[in-house]
Structure formats: C-alpha cells, structure tokens
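[job 0412] stage=complex_fold ligand=magnesium ion status=START
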Amino acid sequence: MQIVDVEAVPLSSSIPEEKQHRTDLGTKVKSDAVLVFVTADDGTTGVGASLGQPRSIEAIVDESLAPLVEGENPHDTTRCWEKMYTGSRWPPSIERGYTQPREGRRGLTLEAISGVDIAIHDLAAKLVELPLYRYLGAARHSIRAYASGGWAAGEAAKDELGEYTDRGFEAVKMRVVGEESSERFDIQATVERVSAARDGVGDADLMIDAHGSLDVSTAIRLAERLQPFDISWFEEPVSPDDHPGLATVRESTTIPIATGEREFTRFDFRSLFDHDACDVAQPDIARAGGITELRRIAAMASARGVRVAPHAWGSGVLFAASLHFALATQNVHVLEVPQGHMPMLTELFDQEFEIEDGRVHPPARPGLGFTIRDDFADRFEYEPGPEYVF
Ligand SMILES: [Mg+2]
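[job 0412] stage=complex_fold status=DONE, emitting structure tokens
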C-alpha cells in the first residue's frame, strides 16, 4: 500500500453584503479554503484542509510536499510528517532522533503540511475502516461545543448571544470589538456589550476574543472591568508575537487566558508554556501542523495543566478534523462551532454535522466520515482577493 497522488484544490465562497460581519480585522467579504486530496494505489482517497493563501499553498503542496510523501505507506503518518518538515534531511532526522527542520518552520509551509497530514490520516483510517477518532484511540464519543460569534453592537449583543443558548449551546463566545468598531477601541462600549451578552445567555459559559488587537495595559484594564461578568476565557488579548506581554496580562487577572490560533508547531507552544502565558491552548489543526503535531502540542499542554480548545474556523474538512482530534485527546474540553455565514463549513459535504444539546457527535463512517458533494469545485470556485477589507 502506498500513496500515489497528492493534490491541493483552492476554493472560495463570497459573502453577500447583508451577511458580512465586521470586527477589528475589518469586514469579512469572502472565505478561502484549500482542500488537499491524498490517494493510495488502491484508489482510496483521504481529504485534508489547509489555511493560508490558497494559490501559494497549492504550489507548496505540488512542488515541495507531494514528492516527499508519494511512495510512502499512508499508515506511516509520523514518518510522512517528518519528511515534510525536514525536507532533504529526513534520513538523519529519523535515524538520529533529533529534528533538523528546513526553512519552512512556520507560516505557509506548516499550513500546507497540516493539510497533507490530515488527508493522510483520513486515508489511513478509511483503509482500516475505522472512524478517525477511533483510529487515533478515542477518549470520548461526543464533545461539548461552544457557539463562536458575537459581533452585534451595544444592547443587540443580548439577543445575538441569547439566540445561541436558545439553540442548546451552554457555552458561547463573542468578539471584544464588534459591529460598532471604529478607529479607536472603546473599553466602555465593550463592557456594555459584554453586560448585554451576559443578560442574554444567563449562566452559560461566556468567552471573549480580542484577536490579538489590544496592547498590554488596555488588555489589563479591560480584564479588570470584565471581572463581574464571570468570563470563562479572554482570548488573544495581545499580539501572538508577544508571549511575555501575554504572561503579564495573565498575571494581572483571574480570568483564564486562551491563545494559539496563530501559532505553529509544538515549538511555538513550548514558548507559550515556558512563559506561563495561557490557561487554554487553541492550536488550529489546518495551521499548526495537522493531527500529528496537535497531538504533541496537547500532550505538552497536559503536562502543564493547560487545557486545549482547538481553533476551528474554516471549511467542513477543517471542522471535521478538529472534531476527531478533540474526541481522541483527553485534555480537549470544548470545540468551537462557528456562527458566521460559512457555506464551505455547512454545505461542502453530502452529510450534515450532528450538533445537539450543545454537543457535537461524530459520524460512524470511516475516516473523517464525510463525503464531499460532487459539484464542490464549481460551487466554490476560487476567486483571487483578500478575505477581509478594512
Ligand atoms: Mg480567536
């Protein structure tokens, strides 16, 4: 059994104006995704997903990664990962036991590696006819979910977040900067939105996300003002480039700190943990290194008393891979369920995700457990241009 073909397919889905949301990142005008297909010599195909600029990811997969994994056995997932991460130095890396990375240690290369790694895992689990989370060694059979959205301005946050709990979610997340966002960040406006959201969700878990948009002192002052609202985590208060600054924010507050969606590999997470910078780690499976690397990150986090809540904002393939990782990993405690307008999350597969009473349930089918609709390439034809416009 060997891998005979690896292909990356860039996709897009534009967002109608009335469904666009605005935050500190700007206005989201479209979603991009890259699906990666890995095929074995018996014709079985696995699918993965990569974040990152689609055409660039396609080129890295085609030119750089495909030749390294073609010819390998799809069950040799760790070997395939190491080959992609180390390039020409994979023989000494595997023989001597210390990693010798090539130049692509972060960024687009890791996003491309993530997509291939997920696809190889889907393929391997399909070949033994097991759902992926069982192929990995299941820890649980469903996972608590949180509804991730919360952009509404002012008092409207009450109804927006309340609608999530009305649908059965017992945990919800809102953006620190919402639809009213302007040039200047306004702590009072955020406090009013969070207060309204708390009214709307009752005693559900309420998290907030700043996308790394604040400076350290502003983040500390905001955390102080939010103390009365029983916040379950404050996500990315400051730039992901500032691990010491994040540690300073964490030390100033009893609100748990979450971060990690823009980190790459266990080496970035090691820095976060060495700085005692977070209570919850949020690696993205389509960015930080796929299933192989997220399991290593989760093991490191577990030894530091840090829980894991995978960032899962993207295509249906990204979400399905996150679900299986969450089910197979003891210290994952909650899974993100995006509430934005995302057709590539909800309309990519022939099947729907089973989300009931605030929990996500996996399909019983092998691998990721979903089949991609036949017309996906036409329906989500790639369009150049940015996803966000300020
Ligand atoms: Mg976030």
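The domain at 3-130+376-389 is CATH 3.30.390.10 (Enolase-like; domain 1).
[job 0412] exit 0
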